[in-house]
Design goal:
Length: 236
């Protein structure tokens, strides 16, 4: 097994006043030639958006864009006619395909928004753009994997890629294994909260680790932890 570890403090950072963000991979004005992507995983941004602020209408194409609100709410509007409110507990995906415009705002006038935005290279290019969103019960991931993104499973939002995203709330001292869905995949583990051992490597809050050349991972929580695991193809 090969592993690459990205400690929270080594991420790129930008402070635009209304937007404070940390970049795991090169993005916008942050560029590190050693941190452009991990396989098909291109972007992992940890965003903090002030009350009433957000991103004006802008374009995307040929990218799978997953948004996971951690605190607060997000209003999404796009050129397909969707106007959606995305809350903590929801997972949203947008297949940009041949091209789409959208805007993203924090509609709450009093409370900030924290979210993860994740970009994955698509399996097929120039597909018809599409949108999907589902709500997940946090109780469904207590000490077990809860699949939230998948190309095959109906309970998850669909992605145009051989990629599987899973969440887990792993309580202190509990252990769980993750078995890869497809030979040759890699997995990027992001510690949203807490601390855990991932196949012998310790990850703490907001650390990330990419693991490849293995068929499984073992995780043991060192404290109560919230973990996102993204299995993705290693080409890209």
């Amino acid at each position: 097994m090969q592993a690459i570890i990205h400690k929270a403090g080594t991420r790129g950072h930008a402070d635009h006043g209304w937007l404070k963000t940390n970049y795991t991979f090169s993005f916008a004005n942050y560029y590190d030639p050693g941190r452009v992507h991990f396989g098909a995983l291109r972007v992992l941004n940890d965003d903090f958006i002030d009350a009433g602020m957000g991103f004006d209408r802008h374009p995307h194409d040929n990218m799978e864009i997953v948004t996971i609100p951690l605190e607060g709410k997000l209003e999404h509007k796009d050129s397909m006619g969707n106007t959606m409110l995305i809350l903590s507990g929801d997972v949203q995906i947008m297949s940009a395909g041949t091209g789409i415009f959208h805007s993203e705002y924090n509609p709450d006038p009093d409370h900030p928004l924290r979210l993860l935005q994740i970009w994955v290279y698509p399996k097929l290019k120039n597909i018809t753009p599409r949108y999907d969103q589902k709500t997940y019960d946090p109780a469904g991931r207590k000490n077990r994997w809860q699949r939230v993104v998948s190309p095959t499973e109906s309970e998850a939002v669909w992605i145009n890629q051989d990629a599987w995203f899973s969440l887990i709330s792993l309580e202190n001292g509990n252990s769980v294994d993750y078995l890869f869905q497809k030979p040759g995949s890699g997995a990027y583990v992001f510690m949203m909260e807490g601390s855990a051992m991932i196949s012998g490597t310790q990850l703490d809050r907001r650390d990330g680790g990419g693991f490849r050349d293995t068929t499984s991972l073992s995780l043991t929580a060192l404290e109560n932890s919230e973990i996102l695991l993204m299995e993705i193809p290693m080409q890209g």
